[in-house]
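INFO  loader      accepted 1 record
INFO  loader      residues=253
INFO  predictor   begin
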Amino acid sequence: SKSPIFFEGDCPQDLGSLLVLPLTTSDEGPMGVLVLGARAANIFGQQIQTMLELIAGQVAIKLDLGRAHETIREMAMVDGMTGLKNHRTFQQAFDTMLERASRRQDDLCMMLMDIDHFKRLNDTYGHPFGDEVLKQVAAVLGSAARKVDLAARYGGEEFALLIEDAELASSRMIAERVRAEVEALRFQHDSMGDVSVTISMGIACYPEHGQTKDELVANADQALYLAKQTGRNRVCDWPEVVEASDKVVSRLF
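INFO  predictor   done
INFO  writer      dumping tokens
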């Protein structure tokens, strides 16, 4: 597609010379242009133009290298299967977000979620089908995250979501919406027809449910375990874990 070099009103009116050089390093077309202007007429002779073309070529190489480095950096941060942030990036971002929450005295909620019976699903329908489930569940999670939040593939069939400046009640609303949207997904299998999946989720929020990353991860994981132990396809939080433990103790005594 063709794009204008100047939009209406942008081009200076008193130019006597104008040289437009494409910035390209391959056959894929230019990544931009180098535009040079002068008030004097006929200033870009062949010798000057040749020199400027060499400069434009070097600029294009630098831009292409910068773009390649950015692509590599992004690939190192992203899980190749799902397109969400990977576990390493999640851990680094968690430290940053937790420090920011502490400094601002804000809430920070962590959701840890797991696709129910995923091993059985893989064994029954095959790994390519399981991969498609991972991708679509990740898409639901990614759409639920705001720009300030972070959605990640925690590992295997586990995902995590960090919600900034959100207390437990609002985080539970987000979690319930994600759970319901995953439950509503339908996957087509050649021999089995429509297949549905569910997820279980655990929530722990800073500062009420933990002061450190390790505490929050451990408490969210226990809440996730409680969700699985009490029927799956549900959301549990750390206060529910504490309540369930108190009930067990009261029955013992």
